[in-house]
Amino acid sequence: MSLTIKRQRGVGLLTLIVGGGLFFFVALLGMKVFPDVLAYFTVIKNVMATAHDPGLSGSSVSQIRGAYLKRSQVEGGSPVGSEDLDITKEGNEIIISFAYSKKIPLVANVSLVIDFEGSSK
Fold first, then answer.
1. Strands, sheet with 93-107, edge to edge from the N-terminal-most edge strand
2. How far apart are CA 120 and CA 110, in angstroms?
3. CA-to-CA distance for 63 and 89, rounded, in angstroms?
4. Whole-number mean pLDDT of the chain?
5. CA torsion angle 92 40 70 52 (round to 10)
């Protein structure tokens, strides 16, 4: 009779600790960055809606800024104010662009800086 010894397979303690730490870091980064990325997409949506509003085709720059401000207030605020918009016209088309930086503190004195920019073009 011969007994065969099977090798045990599994996750080692060191692998579990390193994997858990890596998962924790990625989850922390995602939780800190996600709200700012979501705010960026909200700004893009408001800029596109303002630029393509048919009621603003013959409006002045201050009227366009006011329309954007109303849209952003309905959404609950925005990291981009109406004075931060660069508004130009190309023919009958309104082009609205913006750019801003966001500094996100991660741990102690370590921060992540993201440069956001967008346009209605």
1. 86-90, 93-107, 110-119
2. 33
3. 13
4. 86
5. 20
Q: Tokens for 84?
A: 């931060």
Q: pLDDT, tens digit, for every residue of 17-60?
A: 999 999 998 998 899 999 999 999 999 999 998 888 888 877 78
Q: How many CB atoms lie within 10 A of CB 107?
A: 9
Can you tell me the distance from the alpha carbon of 31 to that of 82, in angstroms, rounded to the nearest whole number?
28
Is the pLDDT at 1 greater than 60? The verdict is no
Judged against a pLDDT cut of 80, whether residue 8 lies above it is answered with no
Backbone angles phi, psi at 8, to 5 degrees: -80, 140
Which H, E and C letters describe the chain, residue by residue?
A: CCCCCCCCCCCCHHHHHHHHHHHHHHHHHHHHHHHHHHHHHHHHHHHHHHHCCHHHCCCCHHHHHHHHHHHHHHHCCCCCCHHHCEEEEECCEEEEEEEEEEEEEEECCEEEEEEEEEECC
